[in-house]
Amino acid sequence: MEGFYALALGYLLGSVPFGLILTNVFGDGNLREIGSGNIGATNVLRTGNKGLAAATLLLDGAKGFLAVWLAWRLFAAAAPLAGLGAVLGHCFPVWLKFRGGKGVATTLGVSLALAWPVGLAYAAVWLVMLALTRISSLSGMVAAMAAPVTAWLIGRQDIEWALVAIMLVVIWLHRGNIARLRAGTEPKVGQKS
Question: Which of 82, 106, 135, 190 could be disulfide-bonded to 6 (CB atoms 3.0-4.6 Å)?
């Protein structure tokens, strides 16, 4: 039963659509009608407001971190389920007809809370790939793949399964980006999509 509660806690925290809230509060247009229509930081950046994009990135990461942090204290061993729930909540929020973001920033927060070395590896891979390619989707997917590998390398099989599940969700949600990457049409950060 603790697993269900942890998953539900993570889902509810993860489903808070910070990108949509911030763009509405600050009058930067309807995020659903901009770029990809997603609620994440990359799409918020397409409004031209770098500050709101940075705030969205931090808040989406924070909700993933908070979900795991609270679950460690309330449900102990079920905390990885809260992390998975947070990513699922961000990607498929019930309040937005299950159409949210792609989970990259939320996964960063989850990874940091589950094991800080995993979170640091995730962030490093994400930033290095972004610096090299300027392609947000590719950077996020490679970082998501790095998380379970890092967990395995540091002997954290207790969280590895959750990171594999999260990686699969993140990659599946990027399937359109993968098609554009293969076609050479995926936009770079700062370009119009």
Answer: 82
User: 151: closest CA among 179, 120, 182, 177?
Assistant: 120
- Tell me which residue has tokens 């997917």: 141
The pTM score is: 0.93
Q: What is the pLDDT of residues 149-165, one digit of tens each?
A: 999 999 999 999 999 99
> How far apart are the C-alpha atoms of 173 and 166, rounded to whole Å?
11
Q: 94-124, pLDDT tens digit by residue?
A: 999 999 999 999 999 999 999 999 999 999 9
Q: Taking Cα atoms as reference points, which of 61, 62, 118, 85 lies closest to residue 2?
A: 85
Question: By the 8 A CB rule, do 14 and 59 touch?
Answer: no
Return d(Cα 20, Cα 97) in angstroms, integer.
14
Q: How far apart are CA 92 and CA 94, in angstroms?
A: 6
User: Which residues are within 8 A (CB) of 78 and not within 5 positions of it... i.e. 6 or more apart?
Assistant: 2, 3, 5, 6, 7, 71
In order of 15, 128, 165, the CA distances from 7 in angstroms are: 12, 31, 13
d(CA 128, CA 70): 30
Domain ranges of the chain: 2-183
